[in-house]
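Input record (one chain):
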Amino acid sequence: MEQVGFFLKGLLVGLAVAAPVGPMSVLCMRRCLNDGVLAGLVSGLGIAAADAAYAAAAGFGLASLSLFLLDHQFALRTLGGLVLFGIAARIFLAAVPTAENKPVRGTLPAAFVSCFLLTLANPTTILSFLAIFAGLGLVEQTQDYGIAGSLVLGVFLGSTLWWLFLTGAIGIVRARLSPGRLLWINRASALILLGFGFWALASLLD
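The corresponding structure, as predicted from the sequence alone:
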């Protein structure tokens, strides 16, 4: 029963971490609108997997990995910001998918991997999990591998539930959007991602 309780706590933590709007949310929503619900969901699963990886580093007490990521956060966040620039430029210039211009199914693995790596490019996320776990009094108790595993699984499923909800909601309205509106959504998404990229690089100067 104790592991069930930690699983439920992890579920809530996963939802709380995934729900705030950030660059990955914008990218996931854009892919959902342009490439289809499945592409958006696969992107969300990549984000959830990265969240679970950071939760595992915090929950299992992988101090050496945590320190390595934090010590190299300048390079990782610089790379993440530059990649966001590239994605923003590609989205801004991309044509809106039509019946003659449908996304290739082979892009699904790339959607997962790109979102996974972009989420990992912000190693300070691990500090969020450490702070949340400490605030909930979970730090000492996660020394038990069974409990830590339940917690991490809960985080992954909680994050996944959020992306299921988000992509499902977007899928409902997607069919009602004209190509013209999709084009403007693309451009707005590109500008938002560009702003997040600038913010990521500017934060390195603090």
